Each structure stands twice: as structure tokens, then as C-alpha cells.
Amino acid sequence: MKLSRLELFGFKSFPRRTIITFDDGITGIVGPNGSGKSNIADAMRWVLGEQSAKALRGAKMEDVIFAGTQTRKMMPYCEVSLIFDNADGTLNDPHSEVMVTRRVYRSGEGEYSLNKKQCRLKDILGLFQDTGIGQEGYSLIGQGHIDEILSNKGEERRAAFEEAAGIAAFRSRKEEALRKLQRTEDNLARVMDLVEELSGRLIPLKEQAQAAQQYILNAERLKLLDINIFLWRHDRLEERMSTLEEKVAGMKAMIARHEKDLLLLKAKRNELDAELTSQEAISDRAKEVLAELETDWQEHRLLSQRRIDELEMAQEDFSRLNQAVDKFLEEYLELKALAEKSQEEESQVSARLQSLSHTWEQEEAFLGQKSSAVATAEEALEAHRSRILKSAGSLSGARENRVRQQMMLDQATKRRDELQAERAVLEKAQDNQAGQLDAAKGRHEDAKRMMEGLFAELAKKEKEARSGHERYQEMMRDLGTLKSKIRQDESRHDTLRELSQGLEGYFQPVRQALKYARQMPKVRGVLAQLVTVPREMETAIEMLLGNTLQNIVTDDEETAQRLIDYLRENKLGRTTFLPISAISPKTLSGQERRLLDMPGCLGVASDLVDTNDVFRPIVENLLGRAIVVRTLSDAIPISRAGRQSFHVVTLQGDVMRAGGAITGGASATRSASFLGREREIKELSASILREQAVVARLAQEADATLKKLQEEDSSVAAIQAKAQDEEIGLAREEERVRNAQTALNNAKQKLDAVQGAIAQLETTIIDLQQDLSRTDNEAQAMETDQKLLAQQEIELKTALASLRQEMDLQREKTAAALAARQELSHQINFLMHDRNRLNKELSRIRSQQEKAKGDQQKLEERIEALTLSQEEDALRNISLQGRLASARDEMAGLDQKRRQIQQAQKQCSEEMEVLHQRLQEDSAKLHRSELSLTRLQDEQHALASTLWNSYELTYSAADVMRGNLSLDLPGAENEAAQLRQTIRDMGPVNIHAIEDYAQTRARYDGLTAQQKDANKAREDLNQLIERLQKEMEKQFVTAFELLNNHFGETFKRLFSGGQARLSLSDPGDPLGCDILIEAQPPGKKLQLLSLLSGGERALTAIAILFAMLELKATPFCVLDEIEAALDDANIVHFADYLAEYAKETQFIVVTHRKGTMARCDTLYGVTMREKGVSDMISVSLQNYPA
């Protein structure tokens, strides 16, 4: 296989398509400096896959495209093709001619093609694998290779030899493995941070989740019991109400019958009254007729006798009238007595009614007092329970704090023991290093005394160079340390930012709401992420705001409503929102602000918190009436002076609330609070920017220092040229002394660091032990307080039960007084009705009495007349005697009928009295039944309200959950009471902890798996690096021995004699030690490469390059001005050897030396007729002096 031709188009200074044909032997590329002849070598390097713009003498890959001149436009792309003759089938391609093409566009896009078919760079590299062509072979050798071999920097010289040994691929794989290892370490550190962060939350979350599960089981069981108890009581109330309703309906029907019978009796009584009145009128007329007849009868007797008889009759009539008047008076007095008795009874009943009304009002007042007492007792009990819950929360926090402190103490003790063991190892290593240093110094002093006079100046320069290198190494170590610190900070920053963005630690409803609101610009986020609090104020602000930090800030109420609807519809829980449009700031008054000058006051909380002006009203609403002070001793007088009208909080987190309540003591600390986490993210961002700026500055200083060191190294090399063979031993001893000193210094630094860490850990352990003791004391005091609070709760419950029993008794008394009052009201109504009836009877009797008196007066007048006319009346009396008897009989019948009517009236009145009494009794019974029914209905309504308020269930919804078995009410109530007590004893329960724990556990398990995978990957990478290291050492030693043999031969042929060898300064570390080049040109001593003349050093380097070609054969080789530093004599040796070697290898030589050109089989000239544009022309060797 051989290289046939090169085609360029738009590459660097070749804008026109240029074709260069290569024949066997040596092809020379000549031209003045700057003409572009090295661009041809760059084009070959580029088309074979070079990815470094710096290797192509550019800043970026687009620089290889023709950039244009004053008369030519820039090219949009460039293209280079290499064409190989593959007739012998060396390349793994069926074509006899293989074309490799690379094209790149100014936009940065590029492409490869093989035989004009697009392919990948991997395909190109695979095509030339094991052929010696490409980046890993020596098909392209430039001046840089000479510089690498001649360099005083061990790493640059080593790079050339490692490339020749073929371990570059191994080193590349090793470096890639190291990069992967670093990425794995970074990822592992990030995962470990996350695992540590999550593990601190996992145990409390697990406990909370278990408590929440138990709470849910208890709550569900309690709900089922409450529902079935409700159904049992509801059904019993329904049965009792049904019975009462039937009873009330029967009573109402009976009362209706009584009222109907009473109406009938009233109608009958009215009829009897009318009939009696009519009968009395008839009787009066009959009496008048009788009187007339008796008068006539007396007149018709004997005149005298008749008058006497008539007079007697008149007297008798008068007597009868007197009797009638007496009878009327007797009836009148009897009725009047009844009326007075009725009125007296009415007065007595009215007095009793007034007394009962007063009694009922007193009982009602007493009932109100009892109810108020019960409400006060219930409030006291609820407040006491709140104190119990707060005490339980503080106790739980103290216990968690103790566990955390114990873990920290154990870790610190374990770390101290590890460091003590490490200190022993380091002390032993330091002794060994000191011994080695003393031995090295001894050998070095011996050599130095021998060289003191000759190399005084050289020693001074070398000392300065070493000092500069040490400064440079120190700078690089500082730079590495700072970069490691940046990586750690970035890892920590990414971890915290991931936790913050994932809302770790926030309540589940908050996380769900914000997840839903990601595309809602009117949702600003949680309050904790919208404020910035100084580190020293974090505890105070967190204790003051509490869970308010998790409140979500929105622009308006409508946005909050949308999120609330989303949470409700998906049953995701509840949370609080802070609409900016609805919340107004709260501030201290002018008088209150004067208190800010009191001792210990740090200012208003809202002024100490930084936030965007948009959120300032919310911050002032929450913190505008809160003052931050240093200690609780400072807080008490300030709160008193302000009459407890605002909040006061200390830096330790003790809070004096408005109204006088004080919250304080030890609180459960978290690994990272919300405010602390947000603050640390911001601090890390600022720290990373500062550290990156320092890294950039140190890198610039390091580059400047390196450049200065290079200049100093050149000066030392010039001085070393005067040195002789003795320098070899001195240099070796000096290197050993430096290595031993560095190792000793490192051992001392490590030992000092370990001792400092041990002392710091001892102090930390003592502090942790003291903290642990204090925590135990605080927890013991809290447990004592908890027992006292529990006893007080029992006493409050007993008092509340007693008050409730008294209230129930008072309620029964009030109901009884009300029933008695209503019964007396019915009785008064009946008495008033009876009194009205008696008054009517009295009026009627008075009327008849007046009429009888009138008749009596008439009879008196008649007696007088009869007395005067007895004779006249006697005759008339005889004639009317018969009529008189008939009238008397009629009168007797009328009297009998009147008495019958009166008897009927009396009987009717008695029946009405009985009916009135029955009506009153039935009405009272009906009222009591209706009251009982109302109480049952109220009780049923109260049961339904309790069910709705507790579980938002109606009777129909609850009936679905009815148990199949019969309910044991006392057992169910006892179990429900025990469950309620159990739930109360559990204290506050985070229901969302179940889901939070599941998510956190899943994430923890995933991260733990990642950590395990990362550890496995780290172990695999370390094994791979170790294996690659061994393979590299083995292959390098083998290749180095062969290269040493080839170098000895090529050196003899190029120098026409002499000898040379390659050696390792430390054979035990073939990949880390310096590579020594010793040469002995003819007539000189064997000495280091640095002590040769410039030309000898260049020719020695070329000998090494030809030895490398012997080691790694290549079908063709491009030499780019590698002989530029040779003198004329050495040019001849170089050209002769090149011509001899060209029998086996095709050479393309970029040169401007005539001696080399003379040996070329083909010459191409490169010139710039137009500035910036290269052309290929014919060449005259006369223009190039030797």
C-alpha cells in the first residue's frame, strides 16, 4: 500500500482545488517560510481524524476553512481527500484504490466519506487500525515530536516514548476510566448526600407512617362504631317517636271529641236558658191571670166577704210574691257566692301561675348558668389537651434529638479511633521517610562536595528552578484542591437544588398543588422559597411562622380557588394559600415602635427578612407585628411594655405570642430546614462563582509561572551544556533528595492534619456528651410534666361530667316548671269561662227580682183597692172561682216545668264541668307528649348533626354501612371511647406521612441501589485501571527495550559511529520515572542528552524518531521540517539515512534545506503569489542554499 495523491479544496491557504501526487521514494515539499507548505502536513493530519484544533495550529476547527483575503471571499467549507493505492490489499477494503475524504462547514457541521460514501470517524479509524497510519502511528512527524524528545519536562518526553510503545490507547482508556471514576465519585458523593438527607427523614417518616396507619385503622373502626351506634340510637328514637306520634294523634282525636261534646252541651244549655226564660214569661202571665181571677172571685162572693177574701187572696199573693222575691234573692246570693268563689279560685290560680312563671324563669336562668359552666369547663379541658399535645410534641422532639446526638457521638468516637490508628501508621511512615531523606542527603552532600567548585552557578540555577517548580506544583495542588472544592460545592448545590425543586419535606398537599400549578404563572411558590432570612435569624423566623412557611403564594383569590378545587376533587388534602391581592400588611404603631430601642431588641421581623417587593405585604402581614430579640430575658420586658399586643421571638426560637402565651424549650432539629436549605443554595451559588473566579485567576498565574519556569529551564539547560559526566550522579541524588523531602513533608502534613482532626474530634465528643446529658435531663422533665398534665386532664374530665349531670337535672326542672305553667294557663281559661256564665245568671236573676218587686208593688196597690172595694169584688170572685182553680192548676204545671228546666240546666252544667276537666287533663297530657316528641326529634337531629359534622354522612349514607350483627351498645360505646382515647393519646398525626414515606422510601431504595451500583462501578473502574496499568507497564518495558536497541543502531548510522542508550531513572516505576537519554558521539564521552550541542541533540532526537519508525512501521511518513536545526554536516548524514530508509517506506518531506532536497525523488514548491493564497509551482534547487 502507498499514498497516491492528496486533494485539497478550501483548506487553510488553499482556496482552489489542489492535487498533489506522491510517488515511491522521497517527495519534497519546499517553499519560503509562511508560504503554507506545513498546511499540507496539517491537511493530511486533519483528514486522518485529528480532533484538536490546537494540533492544527488553530483556535477552533472552523479555522481550517479558507478565511478569505482582500480580493477573495471566505469559503463556506473545506474538503481534503487522501487517495491510497490498495493493490496489495493492506487496507481492509475490496477496492484497489481507497479515497478518504473529510469535509467541514463554517456552521461547525462536518462529515467523513469513504470512497465517496458517507461514513463515520470510527469507520476511518477502523480502516487504518494496525497499519501505522493515523494518530497513534508515526505516519506524521513534525517539529513537535523533536521538541518533545528534547524537552526537559519529563512528561512531554515520556509522551513521545509512550506513543512509540503503543500504550497511548491504554493510557487513553486509563484516562477515560479515571474520568469515569471521577464522575462516578462525584455521582456517588451526590447520591450519598441524597441518601444521608433522606435517611435522616426516613426513620421519623416511618414512625409517622406507622402512626398514621394505626390512626387510620382506629379512625375507620371508630367511624364504623359511631355509625352503627348512631343507627341503633336513631332507630330506637324512630320507634319511640312513632309510638308518641300515635299517642299524640289519639289524644288530639279525643280532645277534638271533647271539644265537640262541649259545643253540643253549650248549645243545649243555651236552648235550656231560652226555654226557661220563655217559661218564666208564661208563668208571669199565668200569675197575673190568676190574680185577676181571684180578684173577680172575691168580688162575686158576698160583697163584704168577697172583698175580705179578695183581700186575703191579695195578701196571700203578696206573700207568695215575697216568697218569690226571697227565692230570687236566695238564688242570687247563691250564684253570687259561686261567682265570688270562681273569682277567688281564678285569683289563686293566677297567683300560682305568676309564681310558676317566676319559678320557670329562675330555672331557665339556672339552666343558662349551668350551660355556661359546662362550656367553660369544656374550653378548659380542650385548652389542657392542647397543652398535653404540645408537651407530647416537645417530648418526641427531645427523644429524636437524643437519638441524633447519640449517633453523632458514636460516629465521632469511631472516626477518632480510625484517625488514631492512621496516626500510628503515619508516624511510622514519617520515621522511614526521615531515614531515607538522611541517606539521600548524605549521598547528595558527597556528590555536591565534588561538584561544588565546577557547578556552583549550576547549583544556584537549579535551586531557583526547583523552587519555581515547587511553587508551580503548590499552585497546581491549590488549583486541584479548589477544583475539588468546587465539585463538592456543585454536588452539594445540585443535591439541595434537587431537594428544593422536588419540595422534599413539604406536606403532600403542598407538593401536589405546586405540581399541578407548574404552568400557572399566577402561582408564585411556597413562602419559604420566596424569602431570604439571615442565618442567625432562621430559627426565630421558623419558630414564629411554623407551617406557614409551606403556605402557597398566589396572585389572587381565584388562583387559590382553582388549586383548592383541584385538591378537593382529587382528595389530596388541605393546605393554606396567601393571595397577594387579598392580604394587606400589618405594622407596629408609633408608640409600639418606640419599644424597638429597648435593650436586646434586634428589630421588627419583617424588616429583617429580605424578599421581592411584590411579596412584601405578605411578609409584613405575617411578621409586621413581631419583634426579634436576643434572649427570653430581653423579650419579657418588651412584651410587657407592649401589653402583649404583638409577638416577640428570640434567636433561640422562644416565642411570646400576642395575648401572653409563651412557647419555648428544646425543639427537634432537622438536618436542613426550609429556610436554611434555600439560604445554603444561594450561598453555595455565590461561593461557586467566587471559587471559579479564583480558579481562573490561579490558572492564569500558573500559566505565567509555567512560562517563566520554561525560560528558567532553558537557562539551566544552557548552563548544563558546560557540565560533564559527573552531573549524572549529582542529578540523580538531587532528585532522590527532593523526592524524599517531598515525601517527608507530605507525611508531616498528613500527620499534623490527623493530629488536628483527633484534637477537634476529642472536643466534639466532649460537647456531644454534654449535649446528650442535657437532652436526657430535659426529656425526664418533660415526662414528669406529661404525667402531671394527664392527672390534671382526669380531674377536668370529672368536673365536666359533674357539671353536665347538673345541667341535665336543671333542664328537667325547667321542663317540669314549663308544663305546670301551661296547665295553670288552661285552668285559668276555664275559670274565666265559668265566671262569665255565672255573671250572665246573676244578671238574669236580678232582672226577675226587679220584675217581682214591681209585681209586689202592684199587689200592694191592689190590696189597697180591694180593701176599699171588698163588696164589689166578692161577687166577681164567686164567678171567677172556677177560672181561678183552673189558673192555679195551670200555674202549678208551669212551676213544675220550670223546675225541670232548671234541673236540666244544672245537669248540663255538671256535664260541661266534667268535659272541661277532661279537656284540661287531655290537653296537659298532649302537651307533655308533644314536648317528649320534640325532645326526641331534637335528640335525633343532634345525632344526625354529630354524624354529619364528624363524617359528613347522612342517615341514608350511613345506613349502607350498617353491621349485619346485632349491636351490643354498651360494648360498642366502651370500645368507641377507648378508640377515642387512643387517638387522643396519639397526638397530632400526619396522615400524609404514609404517602410521603412510601415516596421517600422508594427514592431512598432507588438511591441506595444507585449507590451500590456506583460503588460496584468504582470497584470495577479501579480494577480496570489497575489492569490497564499492569498491561501498560508490561508493553512499555518490552517496547522500550526494542526501542533502545533500534536507537543504538540508528544513532551509529546517523553519527557514523559512537554509541547511545535509553534508560529509566527508576526501573521499578517504568510509567512514572524519567526517561534518560545518554549519547556518545564519536570522539566524546557518554553524557546526557542535555549536555550535547544543539545540532547533536537534534540529530539524536531524529535517531530516536527513526528508531520509533523501526518499532512501528508505517507505509508512508510525513516529515515536517524535523531537520531544521541540523548543520550542513548532519544534514548530509540525515539525508543519506533517509534515502536508505526510503527503499522500504514512502516519505513526504516538508523542508527548506538543500541537502534534504537533493535526496528527494520528487519536489513540489509552495509559494504565495497572492497574499494569503498558496500555489503549487516548480522548484529550482539553486534558490535554497545548503
Structure description:
The protein is of the alpha+beta class and 1186 residues long. It contains 24 helices and 25 strands. Strands 2-1-4-5-6-7 form a six-stranded antiparallel beta sheet. A six-stranded mixed beta sheet has the order 8-22-23-3-24-25. It has a five-stranded mixed beta sheet with strand order 13-15-16-17-18, with helices on both faces. Strand 5 and strand 6 form a beta hairpin. The longest helix has 149 residues. It is elongated, with a radius of gyration of 63 Å. The C terminus is likely disordered.
Mean pLDDT metric: 81
Say what oligomer this is: single chain
Number of helices: 24
Which geometry do the CA atoms define?
Answer: elongated
**Quantity of strands, as a count:** 25
Largest sheet, in brief, is: 6 strands, antiparallel
Alpha carbon gap, first and last residue: 33 Å
Across the major sheet, the strand order is: 2-1-4-5-6-7
> What structural class should be given to the helix and strand makeup?
alpha+beta
What Rg is obtained from the alpha carbons, in whole angstroms? 63 Å
**Low-pLDDT ranges:** 668-672, 1180-1186
